[in-house]
Amino acid sequence: MSQKASFAQWIEGARPRTLPNAIAPVIAGTGAAAWLGAAVWWKALLALIVALALIIGVNFANDYSDGIRGTDDDRTGPVRLVGARLASPRAVLTAAVTALSVGALAGLALALVSAPWLLAVGAACIAGAWLYTGGSRPYGYAGLGEIAVFVFFGLVAVLGTQYTQALRVDWVGAALAVGIGALSSAVLVANNLRDIATDKPAGKITLAVRLGDARTRVLFVLLLALAGVLTLALTAATPWCAAGLIATPLALRAAAPVRSGLGGAALIPVLRDTGLAMLVWAIAEATALALG
C-alpha cells in the first residue's frame, strides 16, 4: 500500500480534537496571572506555542509508538497514520520530533525571560511526552496516562503559565490547575474507555482497562463534577467566577453517552464535548478573574 498520507490525513493524525487540552491551560493560567495584575500577552503567546507543540508532538509520538507495536491495527477512533499504513513510521517520527523541537525552542525562550530553572520543567515535559507510549516501558501502557495528563496539562501548564507572567502562583491558580487537569484527564479517560476492547488484547493496560468499563464511567463523571465544585470554590476570589457554570450544558452533553453505557464510535463525540467544556470553562474563569 502506498504510504502517501494527504494533508487532511496528516491534520487528522495530529488529532485536532485534543488541542483544547493545550489551549485551555494557557488561557486559565493567563487569567490567574491577570488576577495578580501581571498578565503579559507575549509570554502567554509563547506558552501557547509550547503547549500546542507539545500536544501535537505527543500525538504523533503516540501514533508512531503504537503503530510500530501494532496497538492501532484494530482501532475505532480517529485515523492513525502508522497503524492505517498511511504514512511510514519514519515520517511520523520526524513529525513528532519536529513538533517537540518547536516546543523546546519556545520553552527555552520563555524560561530565559522568566526563570532559567523552568528549563528542567520543560525537559521533564518533553520526556513525559515521549515516554507516554515510547521507550521500552511506556507509562501509558501501565495505567499512568491520566496522572501524567493531570500533572503536565493541568498543574504544570496552568501554574507554569501563571508563574512565567506573574513570577509567583497562588491558590486561584492552583484551583484552576486542578480543574483543568481534571477535565483534561477526563478527555483521556473517555478515549481509553472507548478503546478498552482493543487495548487489552494489545497489551496496553490503561487505567480504563485496570478499572473496567463501569468504574471508568464513574471516574469520568467524577472528574467533570470536580470542575463544577472548583467553580463554586473560585467564587471566593470573585463572584464573577460563577460564570464558569456556563460550561455545564457541554459537560452534561459529554457525560450523557458515558452514563448511558454507550461504547465504541458512539463515544467519539464525548472527547469533543469534554474538550469544548474545558475550553469554555477556562475562558469564562479567565475573563471573570480579569474583571475581578
From TrEMBL:
<keyword id="KW-0472">Membrane</keyword>
<keyword id="KW-1003">Cell membrane</keyword>
<dbReference type="InterPro" id="IPR000537">
    <property type="entry name" value="UbiA_prenyltransferase"/>
</dbReference>
<feature type="transmembrane region" description="Helical">
    <location>
        <begin position="115"/>
        <end position="132"/>
    </location>
</feature>
<comment type="pathway">
    <text>Quinol/quinone metabolism; menaquinone biosynthesis; menaquinol from 1,4-dihydroxy-2-naphthoate: step 1/2.</text>
</comment>
<dbReference type="GO" id="GO:0042371">
    <property type="term" value="P:vitamin K biosynthetic process"/>
</dbReference>
<comment type="function">
    <text>Conversion of 1,4-dihydroxy-2-naphthoate (DHNA) to demethylmenaquinone (DMK).</text>
</comment>
<feature type="transmembrane region" description="Helical">
    <location>
        <begin position="218"/>
        <end position="240"/>
    </location>
</feature>
<comment type="similarity">
    <text>Belongs to the MenA family. Type 1 subfamily.</text>
</comment>
<keyword id="KW-0474">Menaquinone biosynthesis</keyword>
<dbReference type="Pfam" id="PF01040">
    <property type="entry name" value="UbiA"/>
</dbReference>
<feature type="transmembrane region" description="Helical">
    <location>
        <begin position="171"/>
        <end position="190"/>
    </location>
</feature>
<dbReference type="GO" id="GO:0046428">
    <property type="term" value="F:1,4-dihydroxy-2-naphthoate polyprenyltransferase activity"/>
</dbReference>
<dbReference type="InterPro" id="IPR004657">
    <property type="entry name" value="MenA"/>
</dbReference>
<keyword id="KW-0812">Transmembrane</keyword>
<feature type="transmembrane region" description="Helical">
    <location>
        <begin position="91"/>
        <end position="109"/>
    </location>
</feature>
<keyword id="KW-1133">Transmembrane helix</keyword>
<dbReference type="InterPro" id="IPR026046">
    <property type="entry name" value="UBIAD1"/>
</dbReference>
<feature type="transmembrane region" description="Helical">
    <location>
        <begin position="139"/>
        <end position="159"/>
    </location>
</feature>
<feature type="transmembrane region" description="Helical">
    <location>
        <begin position="44"/>
        <end position="61"/>
    </location>
</feature>
<protein>
    <recommendedName>
        <fullName>1,4-dihydroxy-2-naphthoate octaprenyltransferase</fullName>
        <ecNumber>2.5.1.74</ecNumber>
    </recommendedName>
</protein>
<dbReference type="GO" id="GO:0005886">
    <property type="term" value="C:plasma membrane"/>
</dbReference>
<keyword id="KW-0808">Transferase</keyword>
<dbReference type="GO" id="GO:0009234">
    <property type="term" value="P:menaquinone biosynthetic process"/>
</dbReference>
